[in-house]
């Protein structure tokens, strides 16, 4: 069964709301035959990443960059997964209270290096996520999970 791995750093209520919407989309009953795993960015291992067939990444934008937790996750699995995960689908979501450009650039840079294929537009939220942004997170989860359906 294909596996979708959600790697997230969820330290705030806004990030929690976005994470829950992503999970809800990824686990929608219409998406069949896809196992969804959730790992906190500080707990994910290279083995988790190697065992997955696609990825969703979630991070706050801290001081204009991805969270230290997500950066640590990338540092942990980048080289062990470099040649083995090329071409796998992914998507990402970010939350910021100020600029998110550096965080977006950082995530794109690392995933480009890994050779992952972005299959959905990122969801970038500034401030409190509203109904529309929560729906976009749901759609992001559903889209990436649907890419893995048999």
From TrEMBL:
SUPFAM superfamilies: Flavoproteins (SSF52218). InterPro entries: Flavoprotein-like_sf (IPR029039), FMN_Rdtase-like_dom (IPR005025). Residues 41-123 form the NADPH-dependent FMN reductase-like domain. This is NAD(P)H-dependent oxidoreductase.
């Amino acid at each position: 069964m294909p596996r979708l791995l959600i790697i997230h750093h969820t330290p705030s209520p806004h990030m929690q709301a976005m994470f829950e919407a992503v999970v809800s989309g990824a686990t929608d009953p219409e998406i069949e035959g896809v196992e969804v795993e959730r790992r906190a960015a500080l707990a994910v291992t290279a083995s988790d990443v190697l065992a997955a067939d696609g990825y969703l990444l979630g991070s706050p934008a801290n001081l204009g960059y991805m969270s230290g937790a997500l950066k640590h996750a990338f540092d942990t699995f980048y080289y062990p997964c470099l040649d083995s995960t090329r071409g796998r689908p992914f998507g990402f979501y970010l939350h910021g209270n100020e600029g998110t450009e550096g965080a977006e650039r950082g995530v794109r840079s690392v995933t480009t290096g890994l050779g992952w294929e972005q299959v959905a537009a990122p969801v970038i939220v500034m401030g409190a996520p509203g109904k529309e942004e929560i729906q976009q997170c749901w759609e992001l989860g559903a889209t990436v999970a649907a890419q893995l359906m048999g």
